[in-house]
């Protein structure tokens, strides 16, 4: 898995470097500020791909004494760096556009420039789509961020082509700066999205997708002896996922039975995740007077109260730091 991530990000770096040369050549022959916006974003592509290569290498290293949770969080940092670079490029484009509006240059060879941007945009689009799909299947936020960035680059490239075509047809060269400013705001918005996602990951913000998939797996493997699951925490760092939860078991189970139940739950979660899964389960004894209402063990020999409820486990009630008898759901 890590090898495949490295291969794709290296391909992204090489392609981005080649397209960078093509786009700057296009700007050189046209003097178009709008085309310069595309070229500047390609610099971001190259720098981001280089940083992403290192982050994927680092995130693949096993956990050690200094990093007991592994190195997966570097991928959030990588996405943040890429987003910051995009924002800086957008701000520079606004400056350059305003300057060019008041001190315009003659535009030349627009048709040739359009052709070169079309080729580079198409290549970026294909690569970006592949990176996004592989990033999702490999649980890599770095690949996904790179793919999203390239797809954004593709969209801006084709919209840019449309704008330059308008300039070519109408001859209104002042539109060059206006088009560049419009694209710069879109680039700023895209960069903000990546930075926001990066900060959320670094701050361990709740990840609904990770929690929902964990709840789904537990419900699929649910056993009557698993009386209650609560105080569940799910964290994901790159392709690594860490889960902490409390599992309520019959109070009369001996140590071996408790160990077997805990191990079965851990294996169920680990087998459902393609990356590295680390599960910590704290076993709690049931409280007969309070848990009997929803305990699903039919032949329980110490039951004091008949079953009248089945708790539906959801991401909301499993995350609460309390047993479910505090919030019984009547069916």
Automatic annotation (TrEMBL):
<dbReference type="Pfam" id="PF16916">
    <property type="entry name" value="ZT_dimer"/>
</dbReference>
<feature type="transmembrane region" description="Helical">
    <location>
        <begin position="7"/>
        <end position="27"/>
    </location>
</feature>
<dbReference type="InterPro" id="IPR036837">
    <property type="entry name" value="Cation_efflux_CTD_sf"/>
</dbReference>
<dbReference type="GO" id="GO:0015341">
    <property type="term" value="F:zinc efflux antiporter activity"/>
</dbReference>
<dbReference type="GO" id="GO:0005886">
    <property type="term" value="C:plasma membrane"/>
</dbReference>
<feature type="transmembrane region" description="Helical">
    <location>
        <begin position="79"/>
        <end position="98"/>
    </location>
</feature>
<protein>
    <submittedName>
        <fullName>Cation diffusion facilitator family transporter</fullName>
    </submittedName>
</protein>
<dbReference type="InterPro" id="IPR050291">
    <property type="entry name" value="CDF_Transporter"/>
</dbReference>
<dbReference type="InterPro" id="IPR027469">
    <property type="entry name" value="Cation_efflux_TMD_sf"/>
</dbReference>
<keyword id="KW-0812">Transmembrane</keyword>
<feature type="transmembrane region" description="Helical">
    <location>
        <begin position="39"/>
        <end position="58"/>
    </location>
</feature>
<dbReference type="GO" id="GO:0015086">
    <property type="term" value="F:cadmium ion transmembrane transporter activity"/>
</dbReference>
<dbReference type="GO" id="GO:0015093">
    <property type="term" value="F:ferrous iron transmembrane transporter activity"/>
</dbReference>
<feature type="domain" description="Cation efflux protein cytoplasmic">
    <location>
        <begin position="224"/>
        <end position="286"/>
    </location>
</feature>
<dbReference type="Pfam" id="PF01545">
    <property type="entry name" value="Cation_efflux"/>
</dbReference>
<keyword id="KW-0813">Transport</keyword>
<dbReference type="InterPro" id="IPR058533">
    <property type="entry name" value="Cation_efflux_TM"/>
</dbReference>
<keyword id="KW-1133">Transmembrane helix</keyword>
<feature type="transmembrane region" description="Helical">
    <location>
        <begin position="152"/>
        <end position="172"/>
    </location>
</feature>
<feature type="domain" description="Cation efflux protein transmembrane">
    <location>
        <begin position="10"/>
        <end position="203"/>
    </location>
</feature>
<dbReference type="InterPro" id="IPR027470">
    <property type="entry name" value="Cation_efflux_CTD"/>
</dbReference>
<comment type="similarity">
    <text>Belongs to the cation diffusion facilitator (CDF) transporter (TC 2.A.4) family.</text>
</comment>
<dbReference type="GO" id="GO:0006882">
    <property type="term" value="P:intracellular zinc ion homeostasis"/>
</dbReference>
<feature type="transmembrane region" description="Helical">
    <location>
        <begin position="110"/>
        <end position="131"/>
    </location>
</feature>
<dbReference type="InterPro" id="IPR002524">
    <property type="entry name" value="Cation_efflux"/>
</dbReference>
<keyword id="KW-0472">Membrane</keyword>
<feature type="transmembrane region" description="Helical">
    <location>
        <begin position="178"/>
        <end position="195"/>
    </location>
</feature>
């Amino acid at each position: 898995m890590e090898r495949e991530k490295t291969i794709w990000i290296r391909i992204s770096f090489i392609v981005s470097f080649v397209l960078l040369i093509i786009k700057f050549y296009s700007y050189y022959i046209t003097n178009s500020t709008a085309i310069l916006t595309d070229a500047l974003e390609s610099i971001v592509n190259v720098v981001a791909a280089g940083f992403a290569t290192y982050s994927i290498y680092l995130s693949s290293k096993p956990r050690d004494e200094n990093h007991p949770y592994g190195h997966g969080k570097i991928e959030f940092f990588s996405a943040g760096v890429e987003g910051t670079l995009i924002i800086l490029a957008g701000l520079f484009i606004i400056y350059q556009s305003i300057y060019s509006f008041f001190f315009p240059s003659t535009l030349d060879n627009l048709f040739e420039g359009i052709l070169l941007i079309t080729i580079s945009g198409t290549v970026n689009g294909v690569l970006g789509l592949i990176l996004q799909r592989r990033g999702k299947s490999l649980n890599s936020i770095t690949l996904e961020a790179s793919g999203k960035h390239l797809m954004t680059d593709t969209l801006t490239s084709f919209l840019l082509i449309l704008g330059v075509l308008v300039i070519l047809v109408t001859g209104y060269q002042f539109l060059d700066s206006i088009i560049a400013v419009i694209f710069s705001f879109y680039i700023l918005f895209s960069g903000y999205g990546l930075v926001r996602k990066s900060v959320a990951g670094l701050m361990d913000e709740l990840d609904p997708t990770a929690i929902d998939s964990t709840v789904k797996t537990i419900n699929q493997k649910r056993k009557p002896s698993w009386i209650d699951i609560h105080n569940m925490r799910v964290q994901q760092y790159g392709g690594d996922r860490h889960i902490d939860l409390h599992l309520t078991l019959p109070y009369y189970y001996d140590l071996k039975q408790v160990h077997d139940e805990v191990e079965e739950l851990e294996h169920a979660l680990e087998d459902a995740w393609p990356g590295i899964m680390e599960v910590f389960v704290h076993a709690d004894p049931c409280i007969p007077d309070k848990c009997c209402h929803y305990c699903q063990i039919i032949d329980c020999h110490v039951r004091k109260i008949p079953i009248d409820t089945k708790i539906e486990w959801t991401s909301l009630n499993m995350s609460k730091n309390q047993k479910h008898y505090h919030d019984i759901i009547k069916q």
